[in-house]
From TrEMBL:
This protein's name: Uncharacterized protein
Domain of life: Eukaryota
Length: 320
């Protein structure tokens, strides 16, 4: 997993950089990159994407995190950040034209579902962002209902929000604090307004509901992962994943690619004890994770990437 790094506030980037800078030929077929940012799988991958040649030519050199989503910072012909304006975790169908429009150009990281779940639970309870939205009496079993299947949902949902069912509406009233004021800005230059839930719902809301996931959605997500993604990394194999990415796009390994710019607040561990789940497994995302693992391992073989072959990359980056 990535190492920790400190983030600092920056001014909004200058606008007017939507031209066509020179782009390295090795990754023309990947462009424009469409990033599916599944929560708690590795925001730090954003730094790798923004530093691709021609990707974000108008971003200040020290700009990290979601500030790059400000219109005009990145070049949409290389790294398409336009559908991040309204949400930092948009679903595939939030992209104009949805899955079919971006098919073959999506990139993402996947994380072992129970680890991702526990990381999200810790983030919501102990985090220093707007995601502190759960009521104190919300149990771990309640959180299983709320946080299960997020990867699957993101791969098949988005766009127009559906009306809440009576079940989901009752669940929110019982377990989510809908009135707590927002305490932290989503990005440094946005105003601090509204409630924490409104901010949370803006970041995640297009695909959150319904809370349950159908088997048809699971099958569709698996198909999309197999056919629509040019790159899939694995959070638990971060260094190997970044090495694979660099080989695929003929990029040089650098130290910043292995830093963690958004560690879970108050909890720097990368592996959680799943014993607290009493044998529970995410009923939706595990099938998707198995497919992601298959694709990842197939790409390792296809590009002849291994722990041995990556030693040079890791030495260049100073991580081994």
């Amino acid at each position: 997993m990535a190492k920790s790094a400190t983030n600092s506030a920056v001014s909004p980037p200058a606008l007017g950089c939507e031209g066509s800078p020179k782009v390295d030929p090795p990754f023309h077929d990947f462009l424009p990159i469409e990033w599916v940012h599944i929560p708690k799988t590795g925001t730090s991958f954003l730094d790798t994407l923004t530093h691709l040649p021609g990707a974000c030519p108008c971003c200040p050199a020290n700009l990290r995190d979601y500030g790059v989503f400000e219109p005009g910072c990145c070049n949409a012909k290389v790294f398409d950040t336009r559908f991040f304006v309204d949400a930092v975790h948009p679903g595939i169908e939030d992209l104009p034209g949805g899955f079919e429009a971006g098919k073959g150009r999506f990139m993402t990281f996947m994380r072992q579902p129970e680890q991702r779940f526990l990381s999200m639970v810790h983030y919501v309870v102990d985090g220093n962002d707007t995601e502190t939205i759960t009521k104190p009496d919300m149990t771990l079993d309640d959180k299983k209902v709320f946080f299960a299947g997020w990867a699957t949902k993101m791969l098949v949902r988005g766009g127009k929000r559906l009306p809440l069912s009576s079940h989901d509406s009752t669940f929110l009233e019982r377990h989510i604090d809908l009135t707590k004021p927002a305490r932290f800005k989503r990005v440094p230059y946005e105003p601090l307004v509204g409630t924490a839930w409104e901010s949370f719902n803006q970041d995640y809301g297009g695909w959150l509901f319904p809370l349950s996931v159908s088997q048809d959605e699971v099958e569709e997500a698996k198909m999309r992962l197999r056919t629509g993604f040019s790159f899939i990394g694995m959070t638990e194999k971060w260094e190997l994943s970044i090495c694979l990415f660099n080989v695929m796009l003929n990029q040089t390994c650098c130290a910043d690619q292995f830093l963690n710019f958004r560690p879970t607040y108050g909890n720097h561990q990368t592996t959680y004890d799943t014993a607290v789940l009493n044998g529970w497994r995410d009923p939706y995302d595990n099938e998707l994770f198995n497919v992601a693992t298959e694709v990842f391992e197939a790409n390792l073989k296809r590009y002849n990437v291994s722990e041995v072959s990556c030693q040079r990359c890791w030495r260049e980056a100073g991580v081994r």
